[in-house]
Amino acid sequence: MAPTGPSHTDASSLGPRAILTTARNGQVLVLRLAGELDMEGAGVFEEAPTENASALVLDLSRLDFCDSTGLNALLRLRLDAQGRGVPVHLAALTDRVARLLEITGADQIFPVHPSVETALAALERD
């Protein structure tokens, strides 16, 4: 299921490593992260327009690298969203990022889906 309805795309780049684009699927905000999520790119979520979203889906299919600082940025995003009652789902993890989440146990904190489409379908069922 591809994002439908009015779609808004923004590009934010905080440093040369992390690039964030956004699209809406109804009230669900899909955040597509590309590049490297490390100390230089960890602030990439600060500009994301998450306030009016009913849920967040992070498409990590183009995330090449994530270190502990990047993982902390993901966890902070989840905590901030959770405080507003907004669920955060991860989708299309690369093997490297999936391994990091597995090693740290973060894969038990986030709902993880094989694709953005399956994440959106899961949110529709909830």
Order of helices and strands: EEEEHEHEH
Mean pLDDT: 88
Walk across the major sheet and give the strand order. 1-2-3-4-5-6
Give the number of helices.
Answer: 3
The outline comes out as globular
Strand and helix map with partners:
Blueprint: E1 11-13, E2 18-25, E3 28-37, E4 55-66, H1 68-83, E5 88-91, H2 95-104, E6 112-113, H3 116-125
Parallel strand pairs: 3-4, 4-5, 5-6
Antiparallel strand pairs: 1-2, 2-3
What does it look like?
It contains three helices and six strands. Residues 1-16 have low confidence and may be disordered. The radius of gyration is 13 Å and the shape is globular. With 126 residues, it is of the alpha/beta class. A six-stranded mixed beta sheet has the order 1-2-3-4-5-6. The longest helix is centred in the middle third of the chain and has 16 residues, at 68-83.
Question: Which descriptors apply to this entry?
Answer:
126 residues; six-stranded mixed β-sheet; alpha/beta
In short:
29% of the residues lie in helices and 31% in strands. By secondary structure, it is α/β, with parallel strands linked by helices.
